[in-house]
Specification:
Helix content: 10-25%
Mean pLDDT: 84
Distance between the termini: 97 Å
Number of helices: 3
Strand order of the largest sheet: 4-6-8-10-12-14-16-18
Oligomer: single chain
Length: 295
C-alpha cells in the first residue's frame, strides 16, 4: 500500500510539473535570436547588440513589432555592429536605453527608429547619410548627438521635442534640414551650420527662444543663398539668433591634397603627343574635357 501511495504521489508530482512547464516557457523572454532579415541580436547585461550584414527590417510602430519588444524596458544600451546598413522603421521605439552606438556601415536611420525613448542620453549615428522623419523625436533626455560626417539630410521632426539637447553640430556635407527637425528643443542654444546647407524647412527651429548663437562656415552673402522657410515667422528663432560668419567652429568642407599631382595625357592620330602634370589647385577639369587622367 505504501508503495502504491508513493507511486501515486510521484505521478501527481509529474503531472503538476508538466502542467507548469509550458507556462514557464511561455513566460520566459528570449535574450537572443535571428530576425527575419537575417541579422542576429543578443541581450547581455542590458546591452542589445545587433550584428550581421545588410539592412534591418522596417518593423513599424505597433506593439510587439520587433523581436526584443518584451525586453525593451531592460535594455540600457544599443550597439549596432559593422555590416548592418540600415536601422529599421520603429526598430527601437519605446526602448529604455541610455546610449546608442551605430557602426560606420549604417547609412540610413529609418523613421521612428528611436522615437519616444525617454532615457536616451547620447547617440552616435555612425555613417548615416540620412536620418528619416521622427527618428529621435520625443527623446526628452537626449543631450549628446554625434552626426556622421557623411550626413546629407535631417528628416521631418527627426529631433523634435528633444528637450535636453543644448547644441547640434551639422556636418560639412549636409544640405537639408527638413521641417520641424528641431522643433520644441527647448534647451537648444547653439548650432553650427556648414557652407553646404541649402534648405532649412518650415518650423525647423520653431519656438526656440533659447537659441542664441549660429556658427556658420559661410559669409553673410552665402547665408542669403540658403532657402529658409520663414512663413509666419516659424523660424524666427533662427533668424534672430546671432550669426557668426566664416566660423572655424562650423564643419569645414574636406580639402583636397594640394601636393597631389594629376597627369594629363593628350593624343593625336599618331599617338601620345603631350604628357603634363598639374597640382590639384591648377587642374581644371572643364578645360580638359577629353583628357585621360591618372593620379
Amino acid at each position: 500500500m505504501k508503495k502504491f501511495k508513493g507511486f501515486i504521489s510521484l505521478l501527481l508530482a509529474l503531472v503538476m510539473l508538466s502542467a507548469l512547464t509550458p507556462s514557464a516557457a511561455l513566460g520566459a523572454s528570449a535574450t537572443s535570436g535571428t530576425s527575419s532579415d537575417g541579422l542576429s541580436w543578443k541581450i547581455s547585461n542590458g546591452t542589445l547588440t545587433i550584428s550581421g550584414t545588410g539592412a534591418m527590417t522596417d518593423y513599424g510602430i505597433n506593439d510587439n513589432s520587433y523581436p526584443w519588444w518584451s525586453q525593451r524596458k531592460e535594455i540600457t544600451k544599443v550597439v549596432v555592429k559593422d555590416g548592418v546598413t540600415h536601422i529599421g522603421f520603429g526598430a527601437f521605439h519605446y526602448c529604455r536605453m541610455t546610449e546608442v552606438v551605430l557602426a560606420d556601415s549604417v547609412t540610413s536611420i529609418g523613421a521612428y527608429a528611436f522615437w519616444d525613448c525617454p532615457n536616451l542620453e547620447s547617440v552616435d549615428t555612425g555613417g548615416a547619410a540620412t536620418i528619416e522623419e521622427l527618428a529621435f523625436s520625443e527623446c526628452e533626455n537626449l543631450e549628446s548627438v554625434t552626426l556622421s560626417k557623411d550626413l546629407r539630410s535631417i528628416g521631418h521632426a527627426a529631433f523634435s521635442q528633444c528637450k535636453s539637447l543644448e547644441r547640434i553640430d551639422v556636418p560639412a556635407k549636409t544640405r537639408v534640414i527638413d521641417s520641424s527637425a528641431f522643433k520644441d528643443c527647448t534647451s537648444l542654444t547653439t548650432i553650427t551650420l556648414p557652407l553646404s546647407i541649402t534648405e532649412i524647412g518650415r518650423w525647423a527651429f520653431y519656438k526656440r527662444d533659447s537659441l542664441s548663437d549660429v556658427y556658420y562656415a559661410g559669409s553673410k552673402s552665402d547665408r542669403k543663398k540658403i532657402s529658409i522657410n520663414a512663413d509666419n515667422n516659424y523660424n524666427a528663432a533662427l533668424e534672430d539668433a546671432e550669426w557668426h560668419y566664416n566660423s572655424s567652429k562650423a564643419a569645414q568642407p574636406e580639402e583636397s591634397d594640394p601636393t597631389a599631382q594629376y597627369y594629363t595625357v593628350s593624343f593625336d592620330a599618331c599617338g601620345v603627343t603631350t604628357v603634363a602634370s598639374q597640382s590639384v589647385e591648377e587642374y581644371d577639369l572643364a578645360s580638359e574635357p577629353n583628357a585621360d587622367m591618372t593620379r
